[in-house]
Amino acid sequence: MPHPPRQSLQVAAVQSLQGRPAAVVPKPRVPAREEDGPWHADAVCRRDEAGLFFAPSKEPTAARLSREDAAKRLCARCPVMVACREHALIQPEPYGVWGGLTAAERRVVLARRRRRAGELREAS
Question: What is the pTM of this model?
Answer without folding.
Answer: 0.66
